[in-house]
């Protein structure tokens, strides 16, 4: 994406809404505001946009329900507040989307879910399936179980990682600020909005301010999230969620908020991101038909095209794919372990459940997780 005009061509958005917007600075969930954002997301869906919602607010809503006025510092108290608040947060979204006959699904993630390859594939497959069912996933950090070592630290970073999971074209971070300014607008009346920049421009970090008392993130975490998202080819818009039709304004390419562009196309960048952290754990020998489909037609690898299997690997680990001469033609994240792969190799996808007793994925390696040599 080079400019705002390109936004009109996007079809896959992650929308992140921050705590200060959702909870009206601690006064409970702002149901009217949530209703407006839901209405805007429904309009985006009608325009052909796939939506994944990342929502903060569980801890803040739990604090309000429990009568806690200051954000707790103890992890177990934060976890308890999140457990209470998550009930109200999900109920509010579910009710708002149901008014438009749209189902929602709650997804709770931790950093370990994206760092572990098997969990990564599980989360990715679940999100993809929900979208195929026309369900809107509502994602939050699993605050009830995280510790300091595995927590994302802020839902901005979580949103960027979700953008990678779903191959998003655009990450929209809605906050209580208009965007990134060249100075603090709260203390400098001459501060000007930065309308567009490169997500990897380190000089922008010097412009970032601190976060609110309710949220864990400030503008700095949003810029870091934009950089993380750009690593998988996703551009980011940081904008005020208090604007009446902010999502529609962004979609129309209007000068709203700050656009931080990524320099690489989404799928190409995602595969580069995957390639940078992968070690080989086994080898699949493909027949000539499978080699042609994978290399020339860009297809996923199906079990029917595998002639033999080498090595011991787990689901979510990386294997290489070779032709009948032993030349590597591709490598990717596999959806079944070595023993399961041997049992289903050479068989059509419709027989997987019969052979294994379950179906994880119809593909052995999905084309999005397959990198040609």
Jot down its keywords.
373 residues, alpha/beta, Carbamate kinase, Archaeosine Trna-guanine Transglycosylase, Chain: A, domain 4, eight-stranded mixed sheet, five-stranded mixed sheet, 13 strands, globular
| Number of helical segments with 4 or more residues | 13
By helix and strand content, what is the structural category?
Answer: alpha/beta
Helical percent range?
25-40%
Spell out the CATH superfamily of the largest domain. Acetylglutamate kinase-like
CATH architecture of the largest domain: 3-Layer(aba) Sandwich
Main sheet specs: 8 strands, mixed
Backbone CA Rg: 22 Å
> What is the general shape?
globular
- The run of helices and strands is EHHEHHEHHEHEEHEHEHEHEEEHHE
Give me the side-by-side strand order of the main sheet.
Answer: 3-4-2-1-5-7-8-6
> Mind telling me the CATH class of the largest domain?
Alpha Beta
- Strand composition percent: 15-25%
Kindly report the average pLDDT value: 87
Total domains, how many? 2
Uncertain stretches:
211-217
Q: What is the CATH T-level topology of the largest domain?
A: Carbamate kinase
Beta strand count: 13
Rounded to the nearest angstrom, the distance between the terminal CA atoms is 26 Å
